[in-house]
Amino acid sequence: MKNEPYKTYLDESELPQAWYNMRADMKKKPAPLLNPATLEPVTAAELERVFCKECVRQELDNDTAYIPIPEPVREFYRMYRPSPLVRALVLENALGTPDRIYYKFEGNNTSGSHKLNSAIAQAYYAKEQGLSDVTTETGAGQWGTALSMASAFFGLKCHVYMVKCSYEQKPFRREVMRTYGAEVTPSPSMSTEAGRRINAEFPGTTGSLGCAISEAVEAALKLPNARYLLGSVLNQVCLHQSVIGLETAAALEKLGEKPDVIIGCAGGGSNLSGLIAPFVGRKLRGESDCRIVAVEPASCPSLTRGRYAYDFCDTAKVCPLAKMYTLGSGFIPSASHAGGLRYHGLSPVLSELYDQKIIEATSVGQTRVFEAATLFARTEGTLPAPESAHAIRAAIDEALRCKESGKEETIVFGLTGTGYFDLKAYASYNDGTMDDTVPSDEDLEKGFAALPKMEKA
Amino acid sequence: MKNEPYKTYLDESELPQAWYNMRADMKKKPAPLLNPATLEPVTAAELERVFCKECVRQELDNDTAYIPIPEPVREFYRMYRPSPLVRALVLENALGTPDRIYYKFEGNNTSGSHKLNSAIAQAYYAKEQGLSDVTTETGAGQWGTALSMASAFFGLKCHVYMVKCSYEQKPFRREVMRTYGAEVTPSPSMSTEAGRRINAEFPGTTGSLGCAISEAVEAALKLPNARYLLGSVLNQVCLHQSVIGLETAAALEKLGEKPDVIIGCAGGGSNLSGLIAPFVGRKLRGESDCRIVAVEPASCPSLTRGRYAYDFCDTAKVCPLAKMYTLGSGFIPSASHAGGLRYHGLSPVLSELYDQKIIEATSVGQTRVFEAATLFARTEGTLPAPESAHAIRAAIDEALRCKESGKEETIVFGLTGTGYFDLKAYASYNDGTMDDTVPSDEDLEKGFAALPKMEKA
Q: Which CATH architecture has domain A40-65+115-228?
């Protein structure tokens, strides 16, 4: 093995003081959220009915490049951050690649993923606003776990609407949330109007993320002193997650490394936007030409096969309209699709960056993803989350491409989390029963046909 | 919060070069293992039929204080070590204690615990000896996971006999092992004589650790090119685990801290012996008078209520006899008892240290353990393994005692692992259905009556 350090840890004192807001460096800004009734840009006042005040300010701020991280949030970050940047020496060796491969590991906290970075910030703002309760939805469970932890820390009551199939298949995820004091309800439930409507329309449905969002928003509006918190897609979330990329950039600088390509998996976009934020900034300012690659599942290909259009964020259509690469808010990936990355669209800011060709995208099939995950586990030791394994797959493919061409590159990818709660998916891979179904063109057309008509009333 | 760092990481270059062997500093050595047929000390040749050659050498070496860690093992250690020593600032704050509480966290690797420290060493020696296969048993699953990872790394085929109730209750543990290429068999199985005998005698039995050991040993003897590896109890395991304590001592020195009390949970003794090794050395050499506390479950109290006597290590009585604090090899803790720490005895070297009053012991009930685990999870963020939570309970009790007396102490405990695969146990705590059954005196007397008669034939 090459005689180089595996892990680079920044000191706690080197933890970023401020988040970086990519939008400030974008000449063409992401399209605004629209009120679905008027098709006018939503106002702060409208958003504040649902979201925390400070989060709304951050959501709408397209100009401030650096937004200070509040001291209590930094204090919490210090418990599990700075996270390590790891040199994948054993994987490099196994691939026989001339490349240097690094990964930023966000799974070394009990939420199991990067989701905690935004959860603790949003919980802090909720507390500061004097709220007693917060509501949210969770699919695979990582966000719900993170918000339960953050809520416990700040003494907030956390109400989680968990997609029913996930609630049933992942009792342990649910139990972690309960241990952190959260109330977990399978969605669609009978306790909200949205839930009752969906249950009536689709008896026996096992739910969807869009439906759980509708329920959580409704619950926040009905509780006396609550707001709704969201773990992905929104600008504020991308902002909070920039702590990942800022640390990555600082660690690479320490190592004297300039990345040639940066790779992240893309679901709603929370991890990807965070990992790439400072590198996107450099590209926007003309200081770098490194490649930035979003990796999505072939079964939910919002960038590589989606449309860039205004769409609904949730099933019951209670949320604002967002302009994003989307498969249509009714799109549901094949039931056999493992893990997260199931959202029908991609965050507006990432969608705009993709449209501007600042970032590129690729999609990968499920079996090849788990093949990469298994190789990674056996070489680097860490059992990756299925989501993260999309980035591993793409990083391995880049490394093999370099090996062939003899080019030496520096590859950086995001290892967003661990797969300890995703072993059902590993079991189907181990049993050879994984399926690689991708949506047909007809499936996609159906989704596009349901996109909202954008003529003003 | 006090303005001090949370985490102390040693540099990879500060990773210990050698393990520390406590036995070298003991005037009175642990009693030797005996051949159950002759009651004579077992010879290296006898042990080498079952264990790897180098492991046997280490097992019998009572004199060498420092045994070099082979470079390929150090190389693997560098992937996840040095592990962090964490200051429990948020927990201290919640308790309002004047103490400084530190914990050495061994859960930041995919095996989820400290078990990997010895697994990788033993797998390396197996590989060096030219073996193709290794066998072992696992109860809660941490050791089996660790050995599966280590075997994958060195290209060995790993056969795991997993206690049947655990195999059935923890399908995800099993799946991690399969992902690392291991063959996992529920024990008692029908593929060994020991298993068939136990199945015949106790139809429908859900197995025990002692029984799984018997099967794994038998399998190693029958396979053409295999040996048996064990994750606890043995001297060699205590030796390998000393890497935990050596790092802890180095980190405390960096911080200028002198521990007043060191606390570890005690099952077979692998973590405890490792954490305390250098501190025991100091006590044995008269250089320190810090307290060292072993914490065991009240439901399996081998130190606090056991006998110091020669006993069988396994159910089928194929292993050598060991002198240890024991409840008798037939003792099985209450079915409601959560997690590991179920072994009927404690490692001979720890037993001897306890007998010499170098270490002390305490036992804690299950509900209070999970109460501590939940407080720890909500303050420090990490969801602890039930095993580790025994040490947390004792550390909290020490801190509260200090708070009362106004004494300021430095408390160090071992956080051996994470509880992500133990959520069934958390569920019973969350549901209020945990039970605190402890063995009656009659139960214990039955166990003692089954201790082997030590008259030579």
A: 3-Layer(aba) Sandwich (3.40)
